[in-house]
């Protein structure tokens, strides 16, 4: 899995707070982009919307559609802005697979297969996250985003991450979900559930998590005065 090799020249700007991706699509080639993420594009780029629905994709909260952008006659540039404020990362898959949290997928080569994968009832329910992950497989470019900055961690043995901070991880890592210190700690310590990875691979983490931010802003929400 490489981060420097690419079939689509690109640049990332405004990292890590509000990452903005610009990709050059070679003439005659097509880029897959998550619905509603396109910000700007050259006039020679044509867009087609494909239905990528199904019950699993519906349950993940992902869009049921994905857009395909083709550069006609010549190279063309497209700029992409994910909805969440945060960072973006790029990897080049070489006949490999990577798992993403359900909202992390941004764009990829047409050669990358993007599918929803069932975590299993126990892992999905108790992780505090979605019961589905996004599995990206094949050979080509892949971009994904986070809420907050992204930190990549090589794993060789065991590694523990709060479930809300996981953005992506490589295939081959085994994982189990558990509480940090028992159920009393789960409810009263302020800590959540953790994912215990085992094996050799890489985990991408985000420096913030949305539920924690929502809990922080909740006391400041506007309230109706009944007086």
Can you characterise this structure?
With 227 residues, the chain is mainly beta. The chain has a single domain, classed as Mitochondrial biogenesis AIM24 (Double-stranded beta-helix), CATH 3.60.160.10. Helix content is 11%, strand content 50%. The chain has helices spanning 55-60, 121-126, 183-188, 210-217; strands at residues 10-13, 20-25, 30-34, 38-41, 45-51, 65-71, 76-80, 88-100, 105-109, 113-118, 132-145, 150-162, 166-170, 174-179, 193-206. The strands form two sheets. Strands 3, 5, 6, 8, 9, 10, 11, 12, 13, 14 and 15 form an eleven-stranded antiparallel β-sheet that branches. Strands 1-2-7-4 form a four-stranded antiparallel β-sheet, with no helix packed on it. The protein is globular and about 55 Å long. The termini are far apart.
Write the layout of secondary structure elements.
Layout: E1 10-13, E2 20-25, E3 30-34, E4 38-41, E5 45-51, H1 55-60, E6 65-71, E7 76-80, E8 88-100, E9 105-109, E10 113-118, H2 121-126, E11 132-145, E12 150-162, E13 166-170, E14 174-179, H3 183-188, E15 193-206, H4 210-217
Antiparallel strand pairs: 1-2, 2-7, 3-6, 3-9, 4-7, 5-6, 8-11, 8-13, 9-11, 10-11, 12-15, 13-15, 14-15
């Amino acid at each position: 899995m490489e981060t420097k090799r690419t079939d689509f020249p690109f640049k990332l700007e405004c990292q890590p707070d509000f990452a903005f991706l610009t990709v050059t699509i070679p003439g005659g080639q097509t880029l897959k982009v998550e619905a509603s993420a396109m910000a700007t594009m050259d006039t020679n780029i044509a867009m087609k919307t494909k239905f990528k629905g199904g019950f699993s994709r519906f349950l993940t909260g992902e869009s049921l559609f994905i857009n395909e952008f083709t550069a006609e006659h010549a190279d063309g540039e497209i700029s992409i802005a994910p909805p969440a404020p945060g960072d973006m990362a790029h990897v080049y898959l070489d006949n490999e697979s990577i798992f993403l949290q359900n909202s992390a997928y941004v764009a990829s080569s047409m050669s990358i297969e993007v599918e929803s994968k069932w975590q299993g009832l126990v892992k999905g329910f108790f992780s505090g996250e979605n019961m589905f992950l996004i599995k990206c497989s094949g050979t080509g470019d892949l971009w994904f985003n986070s809420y907050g900055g992204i930190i990549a961690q090589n794993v060789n043995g065991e590694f523990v991450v709060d479930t809300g901070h996981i953005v992506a991880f490589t295939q081959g890592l085994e994982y189990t979900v558990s509480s940090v210190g028992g159920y009393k700690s789960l409810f009263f310590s302020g800590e959540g559930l953790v994912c215990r990875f085992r094996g050799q691979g890489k985990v991408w983490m985000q420096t913030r998590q949305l539920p924690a931010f929502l809990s922080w802003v909740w006391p400041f929400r506007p309230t109706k005065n009944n007086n």
